[in-house]
Amino acid sequence: MTNPNPESGSPDKEPATEAQAAQTAAGGAGRAATMAAPKRPEPEGRPSLGRLFLDNLWAANTVTVTVLALVLAMIVGAILIIVSDPEVLATYSYITAQPTDALNASWTVVSEAYANLFKGAVFDPETFSGWLNGDNGWQAVLGPISETLTYTAPLVFTGLSVALAFRGGLFNIGAQGQATIGVILAALAGFLLPLPPVLHLLVALLAGAVGGAIWGFIPGILKARTGAHEVINTIMLNYIAVYFLSWIIVQNGVQNPDRSDAISKPVESSAQLPRLLGDNLRVHAGILLAVLATWFVAWLLNRSTLGFELRAVGANPDAARTAGISVTRTYVLIMVIAGLLAGLGGSQMVLGSTANALTPLVVAQIGFDGILVALLGRVKPWGVLLAALLFGALQAGGNRMQSYSGISLELVTVLQALIVIFIAAPALVKAIFQLRAARAARLQTSLAKGW
Fold first, then answer.
1. Is residue 198 assigned to a domain?
2. Are the beta carbons of 362 and 381 closer than 8 angstroms?
3. Which of 91, 89, 94, 67 is nearest to 79 (CA)?
4. Is residue 418 part of a domain?
């Protein structure tokens, strides 16, 4: 049977209309245009907290550099421990024959030393198990923390003293002298003034603060009025304070009449800082004052008008002067407040549990250690508190490390110096660990907008 409509094609299909053909052609052209056009990128969402952590974990940010600086210091310290042990060095004479002897001996001496460092500064598992078994009391468990906080308290004050001056563009290297004058006046008020308990303590603390403030005012006014460099002035004042301490100890009315050596009368118990965990543990209320002082300095720098002027003068004195800020007044106030803080730190050395009388070495090196603490804390108040806590832990743990492992206490000083060196040279840490550039801008933007 022939197709009745030869132009229509197959008899089973209806002829396509012009509208359908046009629609098909338009659809094909649209698909072709869609395939040819570039895809529009989807808006990127905010990164999650975990993603930001991973992105910044191996980046050259402040936290990573600080932690890796500690690691480097511990590695170098381990090498020094090995080198200083003759028995361990002897095993290296035949290391090619029996390398395990040298490795085992090195691991034993280093692990034992660092374990004792941790036990003396933070926690000793043996005392905890002894407390559970009834062999010792809870005081022994908190003993390491008590010692760490005892060493930390004065370092917080001297570290804040140096950091505050740094933020104002001054290098207060005289925290040692300011702490020395502070401890002298605090001790004199502690055993010469017959006052009731609470008032006696307040007066002794105030005397120490005033002594440090006076010793800070001198280089401050010299810097402001004459332009004399504060480093030279504070170094000279350090010597004057040390020799003044040695002189005043042996004076009548100050020297202990029952002693022939250079030591003063003991401070009355009414002027002593109360101990926080009982008489058997040395931690005292000075650590609470240190936290309060840290908060005050943070508020002063970031929330007050004086803090703004201080930071402006530290950034650019000429621009600050042009803006109407009295640079002379600011320099004096910076050094007075810095001296006050250092004087409070020095007073804790004789009003706390470290000592109760003046001796030529009563201040130790808390003023010079305060410089290291300020640098380690990036001259920021709360960073100074954490750095002082680290240095206090090293000091407390170093005592146990020396007693139980036979490691010299000077090694702790070497560790402190190494930590500061590596933190002060972030480029070296970045090069050693191949850190990539920190994504600080992205992180700050995310923090500003929220997670």
1. yes
2. no
3. 89
4. no
CA geometry: angle 421, 427, 431, nearest 5 deg = 110
Which letter, b or e, does each residue of 251-283 get, where b requires 16 or more Cβ atoms within 10 Å of its Cβ? eeebbbeeeeebbbbbbbebbbbebbbeeebbb
172 within some domain: yes
194 inside domain? yes
Select from 347, 353, 386 the least CA-distant residue to 367: 347
Q: Tens place of pLDDT for every residue, the chain, 451 residues?
A: 445 444 444 444 444 455 555 555 555 555 554 455 555 555 555 666 666 655 555 555 677 788 888 888 889 989 988 988 888 999 998 888 888 999 999 999 999 999 998 999 998 899 989 888 888 888 889 999 999 999 999 999 999 999 999 999 999 999 999 999 999 999 999 999 999 999 999 999 999 999 999 999 999 999 999 989 999 999 999 999 999 999 999 999 999 999 888 999 999 999 999 999 888 899 999 999 999 999 999 999 999 999 999 999 999 999 999 999 999 999 999 999 999 999 999 999 999 988 899 999 999 999 999 998 998 888 999 999 999 999 999 889 988 888 877 777 788 888 878 887 887 777 888 888 887 765 543 433 333 333 2
Provide the domain limits for residue 251. Answer: 156-383
* Domain tally, the chain: 1
DSSP 392-433: HHHHHHHHHHHHHH---THHHHHHHHHHHHHHH-HHHHHHHH
* Among the listed residues 261, 254, 285, 272, the one whose alpha carbon sits nearest the alpha carbon of residue 184: 254
